[in-house]
Amino acid sequence: MLFLVKVEGESLWPELIPGKRYLATSLFKPNAGDYVIFKNPKNRKEIFVKKVKKIIADSYEVSGIVPWANSSREFGLIPKTLVLGKLILLSVWWRKY
Amino acid sequence: MLKKYIYKILPVISAQAHCDIPCGIYEPTPAKIAAKTALRMTEQLNAFELTKNWDDAHERLHYLNGVNRRIAVKETHAEICKRELAILWSDFFKPEHLAKQPNLHELFWNAEKLCSKVKQDVDEEAAKKLVGAVDEIAKIFYEVKNVPERFDAYKILTDKLY
């Protein structure tokens, strides 16, 4: 399935720009370095986007880019069941528009 | 062109790339220090005896200076407390916290009013109530941050300021 993700907040600045929409899919498994969209394990009403740092068994360790960003330190590892998808087509062509 | 078409047909969800600024710097301790300072000044003002020799210019000035300094500090710190509480109220606490603590607005409202009361008068009772109100808010603050154990550390530190 394909969907669009509107990014709010600047923890992934300058890679992802707040207010911009990015293409995402649930068809592919996120790998280390991908941007993953998931439900916050501490409050499942919240949807976060973060960068996958490491894959540990069936979970993802995630973080932001800026040093003050929230990360797995705060909300723990993300189980695969809470993952909604990952961003794709983060190419120059896509960002240009 | 293709992108415009994609935007029209695909569902959109919002995802937070949440930062910890300024969450990481919220803290109720400054409000407690200010409330305790205002209480301390109130206690000292109540205990500061009127000079027996009012006609002596030096003694009179010394007395007036002592009273005025304490009033100024009380006024300043009650205002600091008011501001620190307002920051927690408006910036830190979110609607979901209110769902868990339905009396949150009332707590803050009363605490802010106590700050004014402490400024308006030399009322030890009101100053003690303000300290208690800040503690109550601090307890909720640490619970909401999922670090309830830090409330004990906060109490140990701020209860023994003098």
Description:
The complex is a heterodimer of chains A (about 100) and B (about 160). By secondary structure, chain A is mainly β. Chain A has one domain (about 1-95): Umud Fragment, subunit A. Chain A is built from two helices and seven strands. Chain A has helices spanning about 70-75, 90-95; strands at about 1-10, 20-25, 35-40, 45-55, 60-65, 80, 85. A seven-stranded antiparallel β-sheet of chain A has the order 1-2-7-3-4-5-6. The model of chain A has no long low-confidence stretch (mean pLDDT about 90). Chain B is mainly α and about 160 residues long. Chain B has one domain (about 30-160): Nickel-containing superoxide dismutase (Four Helix Bundle (Hemerythrin (Met), subunit A), Up-down Bundle). Helices cover about 70% and strands about 5% of the residues of chain B. Chain B has seven helices and one strand. Chain B has helices at about 1-10, 30-45, 55-90, 95-100, 105-120, 125-145, 150-160, and one strand at about 10-15. Chain B is elongated, with a radius of gyration of 23 Å. The relative contact order of chain B is 0.15. The interface of A and B includes residues 11 and 37 of A. Strand 1 of chain A pairs parallel with strand 1 (about 10-15) of chain B, so a sheet runs across the interface.
Largest sheet of chain B: none
Proper CATH architecture of chain B = Up-down Bundle
- Sketch the topology of chain B as an H/E string, one letter per element: HEHHHHHH
CATH class of chain B reads Mainly Alpha
What is the gyration radius of chain B calculated from CA atoms? Answer: 23 Å
Biggest interface goes to: A-B, 33 and 18 residues
Q: Please provide the ordered H/E string of secondary-structure elements of chain A.
A: EEEEEHEEH
Short summary:
Chain A has two helices and seven strands; from the N terminus they run βββββαββα.
